[in-house]
Amino acid sequence: MAQARAQWIGFPHDNKPYSYGGAKLKTHWARLHCGDCEPYPDEPTLNDLVDHYPDLKPAISLKAAAAQLQHAWRAYHYGDFGAAVEQGLGVGRLGYNVANKAVNIYATYLEKDHDRRSGELLEVVRRAEELQSCAPDLSNGWYLHAQALGRYSQALSIAKALAEGTATKIKDSLDRTLELEPDHADANIALGLYNALVIHKIGGTLGALTYGASKQAGLDHYQKALQLNPESAIARIEYANGLVMMYGKSKMADATRLYEEAAACEPADAMERLDVELAKAELED
Questions:
Q1: Domain hosting residue 53, numbered range
Q2: How many folded domains does the chain comprise?
Q3: Cβ distance 114 to 107 under 8 Å?
Q4: What is the CATH number of the domain that holds 279?
């Protein structure tokens, strides 16, 4: 698998602005992780985590683990997603979040092969469930589980995802994320999407009765995400998509405005650049 990741498709844009060497990573951490609330991986933070969850203890020293995790996150923000995965996994379970997030973003935007994409996402699901079992109060162990399941299930029809219970698993993990971290903007985006997809597929009445979905809940989650992370392009993109799914053409003008705002956002890292480029491409279609 490591050899395969070394051959991953490279980040297709100029990534020089997304280099966070040395102290820059910590200085910009709050902005970079406004969406997921991931804590900065310094040695004291890792020490606290291992004290609470001994099964997270790495094979290397915590000082070395902190340095390697910081390198992994630098690689992630720079768009070197394969390196982020390998460096994260090299730390063990403490590195699962950076590895899992790198896979999820790479699979979403860059991987073209269906089988490779699905295989990597299922590995994220497995790792996230392992992390949940040994450190159940880490919010991103739940969020990245939901994100990977959601991306994987896109290969299925929404009807099949609902019938097989995948959608319920996604919602359960997102709900757990927000129980642990109410200010998790990305989980709010995903729950907005969940409500929109259910309503779009089976309608408001059945969606409410069977899955607890509603237009108002979808709107509330999208708006909360933008309140928490006002510079987010992906929050605007998903909000726009959700409006069209829930309300149809009557909200097309609002959706277009949100896409225009997304395209005008200033990306802080490679992931955000991919989001902005997506918005630009949609506006050109």
A1: 1-158
A2: 2
A3: no
A4: 1.25.40
Q: Buried b / exposed e across 165-188, counting CB within 10 Å, b at 16+?
A: ebbebbbebbebbbebbeebbbbb
**Which pLDDT score, from 0 to 100, does residue 133 have?**
98
The verdict on 190 and 226 lying in the same domain is yes
Taking Cα atoms as reference points, which of 209, 207, 217 lies closest to residue 174? Answer: 217
What is the distance, to the nearest Å, from the Cα of residue 246 to the centroid of all Cα atoms in its chain? Answer: 23
Indicate if the pLDDT at residue 54 is higher than 70. yes
Q: Where are the alpha helices (DSSP H) in 135-251?
A: 139-153, 158-163, 166-180, 185-202, 204-211, 215-228, 233-247
- Rounded to whole angstroms, the Cα distance separating 62 from 46 reads 7
Verify that 126 and 191 share a domain, yes or no: no
DSSP 8-state secondary structure symbol assigned to residue 35: T
Residue 270 forms part of a structural domain? yes
Tell whether the model's pLDDT for residue 163 goes beyond 80. Answer: no
Same domain flag for 16 and 107 = yes
Tokens, residue 234: 């992906």
Assess whether 24 and 92 both reside in one domain: yes
pLDDT tens-digit series, residues 202-225: 898 888 888 889 999 999 999 999
pLDDT at 127: 98
Last-in-domain residue among 158, 175, 210: 158
Spatial distance between the Cα atoms of 124 and 141, rounded to a whole number of angstroms: 10
Rounded Cα–Cα distance for residues 166 and 47 (Å):
35
Residues 4, 136 share a domain: yes
Tell whether the model's pLDDT for residue 3 goes beyond 60. no
Name the helix (H) or strand (E) containing 28. Answer: helix 24-32
For 239-258, the pLDDT digits (tens) are 999 999 999 999 999 999 99
Match 């709050």 to its residue by tokens.
30
- Amino acid identity of residue 263, one-letter, is A
**Cα-flanking dihedrals φ and ψ of residue 183, to 5°?**
-95, 20
- State pTM to two decimals: 0.95
